[in-house]
């Protein structure tokens, strides 16, 4: 007799649950995605004990008829795809038909659902995968799913759950970011005691960011918007019947293009991990290595390599260009043309930064100190209890990165909407209050000052130096401090890159070749980069077994610096773990030359030299950060000065 048998359905579901349902946040993710797929405009979540005891999600989506309400709990039962071809063109968040049966197999679940044009709805109760009750019921249109006692029948799983506040924070982070992806939808998240998030519908992403994170965060961000027609990217345009799709978030993907919207942070915002990077592809929250790589490329030479920006990106592309069927949790994807997407994102973020050229103010600089754990303020919905804060690790922690992220929730908006007495009632805003809140939010946005750009550098008048190191300068509306070394470094860095690109590097022959000893690892790296060094004006020849002779060098550099700079460069490349890519090598060489050739600190400068430096700095693409990512200028606005002197 054979030993192999097919597992019964309820065991298969439990196995699937192992992949799909890891913790309360993964249940919330699946249920939220279902509500969004159902076209909901109003989604309310209620939690108890960080979702361990209860998760209830109620939506006003399309609902289900009785037969569907039962079928939904069968494995691989879905309304979202029909055949294998559909799988290559998934336009919904769900498509595997696994979530509901998986969740129902490890919890006590109740479904209440009604479609709009039927008089009554259906209630289904299931525990540990067994259907207990199916009844007709008078219900509002839409769907409500209640999940109690998650993992009650899988104690091993339950043991691995973290504290209530940790689970809650994962859910808060997740819901927040889905709310960002769908500004047109009303989102609410409540715990037993708190309204964690109440976000009425707004007209655009910027307003939603303001609602969710507040003004301070919004001020640290630069909006990004870019489009690349597929024909230009060398990709086939989709067939006519698949063009101009209305996305679930209300935007449309124009015929055959890649589109990028969202926000990226100014260089002075520096996080210690990737926890504040959120990327959505066709409104799906994803974690993708090539996008992350594109972002670090974009921020190279703008922020230090050890820190990370805050990023909120929404990439829209034809559904056929992205494979979402990579992993059961659907957070991993595969681009069919990975390099095209990578370069598009990198270039869009880079040019956005170059265009905006934001300058950090003094306050910004203080705020920008890298902090490990900004906190989620979970506010008590009672007057005077606004200081209850819990630490919140970001959602991506769940996806495998050591993350933490910062949140500011929107109690202040509710206060603006006409009441200083924040009572639990206004946390479920009636329609009029909702409109008021949205209006308050829009007004606040309109008042928002346009971020100061570096264009005004050209109008500066230098006053003198502080300790022969920092240039003090003024214009009509601000006092500026410029770090003379890093300012010159930025100027030279861009000059070297430009000359290299145009193949007109200036170099000089040394009177006497300079001999430099190298260890074997350095020699190996030298072989890899010697061609690029040559194109940057170095002529280097082997000299004996362990040495090289430098005969020609870039004219910016003093001969006495050469040994140091070459050792430094080779060491950098030796330490690098990934394979060297040409662009990176070019940028590192340019950064090294710039650093060694730049005006030092503790150096007296003539007024004319200072003027020259400021003029040249104004011409650079990225005058706000040195090639190693340090700030170049600080701006103290007239307003800040007047405030400090209590004149306003
Ligand atoms: P999938 O989302 O992959 O299709 P699920 O197991 O998550 O699989 O859901 C099964 C089906 O149940 C969905 O295809 C959908 O038709 C229906 N469904 C689930 N949640 C909702 C909801 N909130 N509103 C309407 N229909 C829903
Ligand atoms: Mg689903």
**What small ligands are held by the chains?**
adenosine-5'-diphosphate, magnesium ion
Largest beta sheet, briefly? Answer: 8 strands, mixed
**Terminus-to-terminus distance:** 90 Å
Structural class estimated from helices and strands: alpha+beta
Task: Describe the overall structure.
About 15% of the residues have low confidence. The strands form seven sheets. An eight-stranded mixed sheet has the order 5-4-3-6-2-1-7-8. Among the domains are: 153 residues, Heat Shock Protein 90, CATH 3.30.565; 142 residues, Ribosomal Protein S5, domain 2; 150 residues, Ribosomal Protein S8, Chain: A, domain 1 (2-Layer Sandwich). With 648 residues, the chain is of the alpha+beta class. The longest helix is centred in the middle third of the chain and has 19 residues. Helix 16 packs across helix 17. The chain contains 20 helices and 26 strands. The structure holds adenosine-5'-diphosphate and magnesium ion. Magnesium ion binds next to helix 2. Adenosine-5'-diphosphate binds next to helix 2 and helix 4.
List keywords for this structure.
binds magnesium ion; 648 residues; Heat Shock Protein 90; five-stranded mixed beta sheet; binds adenosine-5'-diphosphate; Ribosomal Protein S8, Chain: A, domain 1; Ribosomal Protein S5, domain 2; alpha+beta
């Amino acid at each position: 007799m054979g030993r192999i048998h097919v597992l019964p359905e309820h065991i298969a579901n439990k196995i699937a649950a192992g992949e799909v349902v890891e913790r309360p946040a993964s249940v919330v993710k699946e249920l939220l995605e279902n509500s969004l797929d159902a076209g909901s405009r109003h989604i309310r979540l209620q939690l108890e004990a960080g979702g361990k005891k209860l998760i209830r999600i109620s939506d006003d989506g399309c609902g289900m008829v009785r037969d569907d309400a039962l079928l939904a709990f069968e494995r691989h039962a879905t309304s979202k795809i029909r055949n294998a071809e559909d799988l290559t063109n998934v336009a919904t968040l769900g498509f595997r038909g696994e979530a509901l049966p998986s969740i129902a197999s490890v919890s006590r679940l109740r479904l209440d659902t009604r479609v709009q044009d039927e008089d009554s709805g259906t209630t289904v109760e299931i525990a540990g995968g067994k259907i207990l009750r199916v009844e007709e019921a008078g219900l509002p249109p839409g769907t409500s799913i209640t999940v109690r006692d998650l993992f009650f029948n899988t104690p091993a799983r339950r043991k691995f759950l973290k504290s209530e506040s940790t689970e809650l924070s994962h859910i808060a982070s997740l819901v927040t970011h889905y709310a960002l992806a769908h500004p047109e939808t009303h989102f609410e998240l409540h715990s037993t005691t708190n309204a964690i998030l109440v976000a009425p519908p707004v007209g655009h992403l910027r307003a939603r960011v303001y609602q969710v994170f507040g003004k301070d965060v919004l001020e640290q961000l630069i909006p990004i918007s870019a489009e690349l027609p597929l024909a230009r990217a060398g990709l086939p345009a989709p067939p006519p019947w698949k063009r101009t799709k209305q996305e679930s978030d209300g935007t449309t993907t124009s015929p055959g293009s890649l589109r990028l919207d969202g926000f990226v942070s100014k260089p002075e915002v520096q996080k210690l991990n990737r926890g504040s990077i959120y990327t959505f592809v066709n409104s799906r929250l994803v974690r993708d290595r090539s996008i992350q790589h594109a972002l670090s490329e974009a921020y190279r030479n703008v922020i230090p390599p050890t820190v990370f920006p805050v990023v909120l990106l929404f990439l829209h592309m034809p559904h056929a260009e992205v494979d979402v069927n990579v992993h059961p949790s659907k957070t991993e994807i595969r681009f069919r043309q990975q390099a095209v997407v990578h370069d598009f994102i990198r270039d869009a973020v880079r040019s956005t930064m170059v265009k905006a050229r934001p300058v950090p103010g003094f306050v910004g600089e203080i705020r920008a100190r890298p902090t490990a754990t900004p906190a989620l303020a979970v506010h008590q919905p009672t007057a005077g209890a606004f200081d209850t804060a819990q630490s919140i690790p970001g959602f991506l922690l769940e996806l495998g990165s050591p993350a933490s992220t910062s949140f500011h929730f929107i109690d202040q908006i509710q206060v603006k909407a006409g009441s200083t007495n924040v009572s639990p009632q206004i946390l479920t805003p009636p329609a009029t209050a909702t409109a008021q809140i949205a209006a308050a939010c829009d007004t606040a946005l309109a008042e928002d000052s346009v971020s100061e750009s570096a264009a005004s550098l050209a109008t500066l008048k230098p006053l003198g130096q502080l300790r022969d190191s920092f240039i003090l300068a003024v214009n009509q509306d601000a006092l500026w401090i410029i770090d003379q070394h890093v300012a010159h470094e930025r100027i030279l860095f861009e000059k070297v890159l430009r000359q290299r690109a145009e193949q007109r590097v200036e170099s000089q022959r040394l009177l006497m070749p300079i001999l430099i000893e190298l260890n074997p690892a350095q020699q190996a790296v030298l072989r890899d980069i010697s061609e690029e060094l040559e194109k940057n004006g170095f002529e280097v020849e082997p000299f004996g077994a362990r040495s090289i002779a430098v005969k020609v060098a870039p004219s910016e550099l003093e001969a006495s610096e050469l040994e140091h700079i070459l050792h430094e460069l080779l060491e950098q490349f030796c330490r690098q773990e990934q394979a060297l890519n040409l662009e990176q090598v070019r940028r590192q060489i340019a950064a090294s030359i710039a650093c060694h050739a730049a005006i030092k600190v503790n150096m007296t400068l003539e007024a004319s030299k200072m003027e020259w430096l400021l003029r040249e700095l104004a011409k650079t693409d990225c005058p706000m950060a040195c090639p190693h990512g340090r700030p170049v200028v600080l701006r103290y606005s007239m307003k800040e000065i007047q405030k400090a002197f209590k004149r306003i």
